Fold this sequence. Notes:
By secondary structure, the chain is mostly beta strands. The protein is built from no helices and 14 strands.
Amino acid sequence: RFGNYGTLKMVSAGSHSWSNGARSVSSFGSADDFNGFDIYGVACTPTALHKSCSIGLSHGDSHRSYTDIDFAVLFSGFQYYVYEQGTQAWRSYHAFSPNTDVFEIRVNSVGKVEYARNRVVFYTSSRTPTYPLLVDTSFRTHGAKLQDIYWLHRNEQHKVVWSQISQAMDTPTTEDGSWGVLARRDSGHDWVHGARSVRTFG
Length: 202
């Protein structure tokens, strides 16, 4: 991640089947040391109601359907669901907020996969994950879109991620084991440069 986010969108208006998507190049984790890896999950923001798509963590990627994802959040209608290997494990009974809610699928400190909405866990899986895990997706509806997709990184917890960075600012940096850094690179003395955080709270 390091300040950059991913976006996936289904642009074809073809068949409404779960036959489109993508998977991450990288994977993470080990059953022997699930706390020893910097990456521990994935986060994303869905952009619209009534657009069906899913994202989650999986040991493999044998086909494009959501049924192939080991631990998935599935968005359909105005609700969101948990599907694990094609079986519904949990469902919401209220709408999510598109372009606002941040969903996380992550491995917790005891090796269980948990699902969170805006940092609040709403379901913890009883299944044991098989490592390594990659990010897998499946899209059904034309226009379905997931934005701000990024790895959850232990060394970036609690760090501020920046946007709207003005031209006199150095590219913000984060280093393992340290906080983020912002610096102005020009020699001016006016109050017209800076950046703002991606996230808000409260």
